[in-house]
Amino acid sequence: MMQLRQDDDQFQDKETKIVVIGPEKANKFQDYWKEHDLEFIGIPDEKKSVLELYGQKVNFFKLGRMPAQMLVDKEGALRHIHYGHSMKDIPENQEILKLIDRL
Which of 55, 49, 45, 39 is nearest to 6 (CA)? Predict the structure, then answer.
């Protein structure tokens, strides 16, 4: 999530909004947002309903929810999804920005 912050201006130039959905309770999620001064949208998913809707995996041996990046177009259609196998399996920002250009 913090890597997305590094290139926020490039995402904005491409009219791309970053939305982070996390498994925490709302108050804990809000505290994290304030502590790190994050400007993109954050939505708590305590009941894991979004996780289940999009098939995001949970691996308790790797401490919980595996990363997933999704691109949704302006009409709300899911255009791309990447399911990570670990917290190190997250696409670089430049890879995501190139993908946005192709879509």
Answer: 39
Number of structural domains (the chain) is 1
Number of helices (H), then strands (E), belonging to the chain: the values are 5, 6
Supply the CATH number for residue 47's domain: 3.40.30.10
Yes or no: say if 35 and 50 are a contact pair by the CB < 8 Å rule: no
pLDDT per position as a tens digit, 77-102 = 888 888 888 778 888 999 999 999 99
Q: Chain centroid to CA 96: how far?
A: 12
Pair of tokens at residue 62 = 């790797």
pLDDT tens for 44-83 read 888 888 878 887 776 666 566 777 888 888 888 888 888 8
CA pair distance 13, 75, nearest whole angstrom = 19
Q: Are 41 and 17 in contact (CB under 8 A)?
A: yes
pTM for this structure? 0.75
